[in-house]
Design a protein that fits this description.
about 65% helix
């Protein structure tokens, strides 16, 4: 039976380094997906879902820094920047989830949300706004 101690992870990078590495990796994932040129509404929905997942993961990594043990010793300015970054990624994830839902609706020839603006296909469907 082994006893766990905090010292067993002395070779592990500090949390900020792990967060930075994860965010860099997610940026590397985001860029090629964002650059895709889907050829159908269904493909647009899949792409938007993938982008939403990446943004949600980025928000989760930022939020990790807000956990009580990691906040100790953090400057107020850095803390505010982390809160802003986490919120921004949550907003991006929500945008891409909404976009995916609109693209799925469009693929199924259902009305899209009014929030979609330029993506709205009410005219295409002959629905009066």
């Amino acid at each position: 039976m082994s006893t766990y101690t905090a010292h067993q992870h002395y070779n592990r990078p500090p949390v900020t380094e792990r967060v930075l590495a994860a965010l860099d990796g997610l940026t590397d994932e985001f860029s090629p997906v964002a650059a895709e040129a889907p050829d159908s509404n269904a493909a647009h929905a899949v792409r938007a879902d993938r982008l939403a997942i990446i943004c949600a993961r980025r928000a989760a990594w930022w939020n990790l820094l807000l956990a009580r043990p990691h906040r100790d010793g953090m400057s107020r300015l850095f803390l505010r920047a982390v809160i802003h970054a986490a919120g921004q990624e949550q907003d991006r994830a929500r945008f891409w989830r909404d976009a995916a839902a609109d693209w799925r609706a469009r693929a199924e020839r259902r009305p899209t949300s009014d929030v979609a603006g330029a993506m709205s296909n009410h005219h295409d469907l002959g629905i009066a706004s």
